Amino acid sequence: MGNNAGYCVVDLRRSDMTNPHIVYIAVPVFSRARLMVGTVAKALTVNAHIRSTVIIHELKAQQVKTDLQRALSSAGATECTDVHFETFQPKEGGDILSSMSCYAQELKPAFANVLEKRGSADLIIVDNNVPVSAVADLRALQPGVKIWCYFPAEPLALYKYIAPPLLPLSPQELMQRGLQILNNPKPTDPEEIWKVIDRSDGGTMNIPGIGPLYLRELYSELSKEVVINSLIGGSIPTYDTLVVNVNYDQSRETCQELSALGYKVVPCGMSGAFPIHPVTTAEELPDDPETAKKVKEYLDSILRERSVLYISFGSMHFPPAEQMGDFIDVIMEMDVPVVIAKSVPQHFKSLETKLEVLVQSKKGLVINWAPQHAILSHPATNVMLTHCGWGSITECISYSVVMIGWPLVGDQPTNAIMVERSWEIGYHLKQVFQGVNVGKQLYGTDIVVKGTAEARKEEMRDTLNKALGADGKKKREKMAELGDIYQKSITSSELWLKEAGFPRSSV
Prior knowledge:
Keywords: Transferase. By secondary structure, this protein is α/β, with parallel strands linked by helices.
């Protein structure tokens, strides 16, 4: 194990590594699967002799295969690739915790099939949501195999999970607390859930690249997410290396801090984050051509450049309906043209009346599926209201679309803080905070979370005015500079492959 430029690497070089076999395991979250497959494609453009196996939910496989074919075709790497998809159908769980458990049960036989069909793996790369029990199963099936964790986010988000040594709790202690609550058959008091992560030092932490903040600012509400985070945090030390979906130069400080704490970190560039195959016309959008055409016609009809607001929260989580209703009220009041993606229609069930008024007024377009690259790349689009998932952030940077962050879970809060505070390329809504934040002041500011509709609407109006005005223009200029850095990092798959012992091939 060596140390280079502030991050640690694992040396997997072997004399017989002429056709290395990398196994990628993607969790059943579509956006993450696409990011990981972007990494597969980029790896193959660097070393065409790599044999790649993708273990994935069968319902996601076809679209991900299409993405991979597009990416390889664009890179001219289709003639010399060996890629196999091992699919499976996990049983459905009642909630995300149950789903993770069911998913773990199906990974073991899937990997056993891979070993039989494709031979042993030289490296396994798993998504950070793969349960620790599944990782143990992989090691049992192939003892000694190196397992890297793919973390599709800015590495500073790891601080939400790992509880660095400067704080009282270790990752293992966090996981034990989370399991205690998870295994409790009785309903758990919210304050008991909060005790899983609250620290005896008063609940503050200093995150490199962001600075000090209250730990509660990383959680929009008290929920089982606290437990999930503790489980993820407990699994991180079990991996040999963390592969982070960033450009090292942009995240140097965080990578160095994590390395000093003993975590082995390798940046792989913006793998899959930028569209390798540009998507700008209806003909290039096989998912739903009719919707793509409708979106293009609507955006083309907008007479003012940089005037449209695009709203999307992905397919996993959604803000409280009451709060989202407040935002829709503000949009109609301010007469802002808007495209709203309701990827999960049931999330919008109580908002249908307001959405109907919005559509009838010709001020907005509401769709179930959104061609996001086509929307963000259109000259009419100015601002995106987003949960601050890492994929959406990097896409907004690519197209210089200003972000209004409404983070909900996972790495999203740290992403939103970074967008506003560190990079100054967007905004972060604060009055939408719930739970332990209501009635309390945010660290280092005079902002108090009031928890009222009036306070939320006032902040939303102010933020939209800034984003659509001169301040938003300044942020777009900064974003263009950052986009240049990230576009250059697209080729940095060569870095992590070299460190893994799979250097650039001659073909």
